[in-house]
Amino acid sequence: MRSFYRIFQIALIAIPLLAMRQDKPLRVIFFGDSITQAGVGPTGYITKMTEMLKIKNQSGQYELIGAGIGGNKVYDLYLRLEDDVLSKKPDVVFIYVGINDVWHKSSHGTGTDPDKYVKFYEALIKKMKAQNIRVIVCTPTVIGERNDNSNAQDGDLNYYSKLIREIATRNNVQLCDLRKYFGDYLAQNNPENKEKGVLTSDRVHLTDEGNKFLADRMMEALVKTN
Amino acid sequence: MRSFYRIFQIALIAIPLLAMRQDKPLRVIFFGDSITQAGVGPTGYITKMTEMLKIKNQSGQYELIGAGIGGNKVYDLYLRLEDDVLSKKPDVVFIYVGINDVWHKSSHGTGTDPDKYVKFYEALIKKMKAQNIRVIVCTPTVIGERNDNSNAQDGDLNYYSKLIREIATRNNVQLCDLRKYFGDYLAQNNPENKEKGVLTSDRVHLTDEGNKFLADRMMEALVKTN
Amino acid sequence: MRSFYRIFQIALIAIPLLAMRQDKPLRVIFFGDSITQAGVGPTGYITKMTEMLKIKNQSGQYELIGAGIGGNKVYDLYLRLEDDVLSKKPDVVFIYVGINDVWHKSSHGTGTDPDKYVKFYEALIKKMKAQNIRVIVCTPTVIGERNDNSNAQDGDLNYYSKLIREIATRNNVQLCDLRKYFGDYLAQNNPENKEKGVLTSDRVHLTDEGNKFLADRMMEALVKTN
Amino acid sequence: MRSFYRIFQIALIAIPLLAMRQDKPLRVIFFGDSITQAGVGPTGYITKMTEMLKIKNQSGQYELIGAGIGGNKVYDLYLRLEDDVLSKKPDVVFIYVGINDVWHKSSHGTGTDPDKYVKFYEALIKKMKAQNIRVIVCTPTVIGERNDNSNAQDGDLNYYSKLIREIATRNNVQLCDLRKYFGDYLAQNNPENKEKGVLTSDRVHLTDEGNKFLADRMMEALVKTN
């Protein structure tokens, strides 16, 4: 009788917990620029990740939310951090920003200085960690797909990627080293050393192959320590 | 007897009010870039304003605080708004930023797009007004002192000044139209149409004459509706 | 008998001269960028000038030749001066270049420094004058049609225009002050202060109205001292 | 008797040849930018090459002439080709230009587009070859000495170097691949991955070690097919 009561007690606590677990999937926000904005499109990387979860029968475990806006740089993310991320109480946030911070230097004269890039980036992380969010930082992919470091922005993209790797270490957050993954892939799969047409359609935005590749890398990062 | 009681009643309310007024000078923060950082130097415009108040025996009425950092653009102000302004509970804030937002486009490729400039500027104002701060917005002064609109950044400075005038109207905040004041002054006082050497030493940063001129304009704005 | 001989003598000289004048129209080359390249299109300014001559029955007096290539800056003209101008033995050359020298600073990072602009410009003039060509130099028109000096490149365009006016004086060549003409026109005819849509379709390239206006100004310059 | 006659015959031919060789050293012009302008300074690379020749007792065989001007890009070389190179009737010309073509994109907005770079470069070569000059083309060295392709301009410098290698092949002229030599050296000799202080003092201009290294590479190129 007593043990039944005990079991009953446990059940009282455990059932709602299990229910909660089932009712409340892990909320994951992808916070970024146009690539992430396109990520929720029909062939976008977030859409593909959702489909991957469905196939694995894990749809209930993750809620994937795109929060990408075209042209965004790191300080734009900071400006909309409260509205687009914190207020939504996510469990995990991927920060994937940097292409425009580098690219707009030459295309619009409005890129982001490296020291400011780091400052805003760490301000993002600090506010997310204060809300106990698991942060995953991504290095920027590519502006041009040549695989011999001869795309005009390669030097800067390599440098900003180093900064992000240092940020990850310094802030003890997970790194998803997209630039490295893309570089390795293109070294193998771009034999003609083309500027575009492999993972990107226009040197930056992703082809279907690019979205697939990105979805795989993002998924690996997401499930890694989960 | 009754009137004495009445006077006593008034005194009960008025004396603390007067005391409060004397004890608590109006706290004014100048929020900006290197020009404002230099403003608290020995010949800077904020130092000159403090001296002007002393001469007028009004030192007790105002507390002038410089919050300028070299190289700052509008989004840098936003990043340090809490720490450098809001936490200090000012009564009045001058926002004087924009030179670097325009200038760094060509000098570093890291200026600020006009739409982003407006977005961050209005975010600053919104947070200050929420704390009941009287905001005074300033148009950017000059990058080059030629008085015939032939300084390289004149087009952009004129445009960003228009944006600030619109911001002032739209947000119902006070305008201190420095660019207009500087332009009018240089039209009269730069007969050789020099690039620098009148109000600035290097096309941007202020000479003693420039700091004096700026201090006068800022003081006019400060006491205007006070 | 003697006077008849005299008349015969004069005729001997005069007839070929008259014939030559009829047989050999004044060869005019328009040397420039995309605006001039479009100038020979169906609604381009050079086409319109040819039509104007036809109406005035002066088709035989002028041969108008377009030598514009999109994206050209002053040094591009220098590189193709021999092939596209000198080898064609023109009588008159309009130099109309400068928009890209200014514009590409911010759009591509590949504009032309003012001192280099002057150097190449005067090198063009020197080589043309050595071949006895009448040179007409044009100030750059517009990048944006706002009439209050608030287009981003107005400062630079005003400055480069001043440089061209000085070049004209210093080298004693004719000036066609297009920037002034466009400015005066837009002050009257752009009441909404639009960026484009009056003389240009895209802030730079000409509408039909723009081509007509330019054709008129060019024609005035051409017939001026002729 | 016969052999004496034979020797006499040989002497008849050989003596003038030797004389000519002694009387007329090979005239070598170094055509470039500020690095080459500094090259004729007390510790410059051209000065060092002259000293190397003295030590090897070959001073009479080469006349080394610096023709570098600070800030020069490829089109500046084209503008002064006649005056500073062709008119001096050199036997050999090193073309060493490209740093500013890349660098000034971000620092002044006045770099050189790659297609224009190639066009002017090949125009230089064509005019030199027409005068039977032996042309040696050099890839640009460095803007920043980090050895992991993370200097901001590395992508562009790698690309322009590829263009020069293609130019060398296409025009059948000798290549002096300075960028490769510098890269290999820095991979070995910059263990801290510093931005400057190994071969350059300021990321671009050469230290004594840099000038020595450059002098060695230039000398190897010069004597290679001589």
Automatic annotation (TrEMBL), chains A, B, C, D:
InterPro entries: Ester_Hydrolysis_Enzymes, SGNH_hydro, SGNH_hydro_sf. It holds the Pfam family Lipase_GDSL_2. PANTHER family: SGNH HYDROLASE-TYPE ESTERASE DOMAIN-CONTAINING PROTEIN (PTHR30383:SF5), THIOESTERASE 1/PROTEASE 1/LYSOPHOSPHOLIPASE L1 (PTHR30383). The lineage of its organism: Bacteria, Pseudomonadati, Bacteroidota, Cytophagia, Cytophagales. GO terms for molecular function: phosphatidylcholine lysophospholipase activity. Residues 30-212 form the SGNH hydrolase-type esterase domain. It comes from Dyadobacter psychrotolerans. This is G-D-S-L family lipolytic protein. It comes from the Bacteria.
